[in-house]
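Residues determine shape. Take a concrete instance:
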Amino acid sequence: MEFNKLVPELSVSNLQKSLDFYVDVIGFVLEYKREEDKFSFLSFQGSQIMIEEYSEDPVWDTGKLEHPFGRGINFQIDIDDVDSLVNSLKKANYSIKMDIREKWYKKDDKLLGVREILVMDPDGYLLRFSEDIGEKSV
């Protein structure tokens, strides 16, 4: 396994609850874990994240950690099939913050198309799952 150049590490309130969401519902692969640190490294269709159960540590703490975690950031995760993910979320009775929408984002003289959804993980991190649907001229 190669490591991406940027791999976010998320502090979570309950590692097992987060693993249930990321692995069992979304479909991330548990690459490895360090049980003594309550840490797991996950991958999904080329994306990678690390999750670690929160414990107070003055070196890593940047402020008070309150739900929802990660305010002010969303993680865009490119995926192959938004519909399959939505089905998995619904099967698990997991709330979808924004249902599938088609969106075209301008880049220079082109529009880049995606089908995307928004989901909040158990700790409130905002995840944007995005399926490429092509491009067109402006």
Remarks:
- The CA atoms of residues 14 and 98 lie 24 Å apart.
- The helical segments are 15-26, 82-91.
- The radius of gyration is 16 Å.
